Amino acid sequence: MRELSALEEKLGYHFHNIDLLQRAMYHSSYANEHRASGVSSNERLEFLGDAVLGLVSADFLFRRHADLPEGELTRIRAALVCEESLHRVALELNLGHYLMLGKGEEAGGGRERPSILADAVESVLAAVYLDGGMDSASALIHRVLLDRDVEHQAVVARRDSKTVLQEIVQRTPNQKLTYELVDASGPDHAKEFTMEVLLNGAPIGRGTGHSKKEAEQSAAHAALAAMGE
Asked: Annotated catalytic residue: which of 46, 105, 119, 122?
C-alpha cells in the first residue's frame, strides 16, 4: 500500500481514520483479486461521494445565480461536475499514483483511465465526508473545484456539442454525421460506453460516458476540439 500522507497534504485535509482514504483507493478490480483478505472496493464510497458533490455544487450554484431557472442550473451543474472536470481534479491530486488496481486493469492502462480517476475523486469526497462531516467535504470541493476558474468553462461546455457539430457540418452540402458504439464495459450499475462520431464514414472524434447519449456528446466535443471549435 502506498503512503497516503502526501495525498492528505494535497487534499489539505488530515484524516482521523486513514482507512477511509485507503478504501477510496481500492478499485473494484483490486478488491475482486483480494476478496479473501476482506478488501472492499470504493464503489459504495463513489455512490456517496456523487451525492455529496451534487448537493454542494447545487447549493453553490443556487446561491450564486439567483436569477437562473432550474433547467439552466441543472445544465451548468452537469457540466461543472462532469467526468472531464473530475478527471482534471484527479490529475492535480495525482490520484492515479495511489490507486490500487487489479493486474488486468493495471496492464490495460487503468491508472490513466479518465472514468476510473473521476470515480476515485468522488470516493475521496465521500471518505472526507464520513471522516470530517459535510463542512470538511464542502471545503474540499470548493478548494479543488468550485472556487477555481471553472464555471466559465462549465457554461461553455453545457452547449449541446452534437448540435453545434451538426450545424458546422451542414455548412457544406451532402455531409453526413453518424455515431457508432465502439465499446461497452463495466457492471450494469456502472456501465461505460465508448462512441465514435464519423463524418461520411471517417472517424473524427471518440468519447466515453455512462450512457450512450453522454458518450455521443463527448465524441462530438472531441470532434469540435480537433476542428479547433
From this structure: 122
Q: Which 3 state secondary structure label does DSSP give 39?
A: coil
Q: What three-state secondary structure class fits 132? A: helix
Is 216 marked active-site? no
What angle do the packed helices 83-93 and 114-141 form, to 10 degrees? 80
The Cα 93–Cα 111 span in angstroms is 13
How far apart are alpha carbons 20 and 37 in whole angstroms? Answer: 17
pLDDT tens digit string along 171-199? 888 899 999 999 998 887 778 899 999 99
Q: pLDDT (tens digit, 9 = 90+) per residue, 71-122?
A: 878 878 888 888 888 999 999 999 999 999 999 988 888 888 999 999 999 9
User: How many Cβ atoms from other residues are within 10 Å of residue 196's Cβ?
Assistant: 20
Residues present in the chain in total = 229
Both 54 and 133 in one domain: the answer is yes
Q: Which candidate in 46, 50, 151, 214 is catalytic?
A: 50
Assess contact for 127 and 15: CB atoms under 8 A.
yes
CB 68, CB 80: distance < 8 Å: no
Domain containing 46 equals 5-157
User: Domain check: are 176 and 123 in the same one?
Assistant: no
Active site residue 50: yes
User: Are 28 and 91 members of one domain?
Assistant: yes
What predicted TM-score, i.e. pTM, was given to this entire model? 0.69
Where is the domain boundary, 113, 129, 157? 157
Residues 149 and 201 in one domain: no
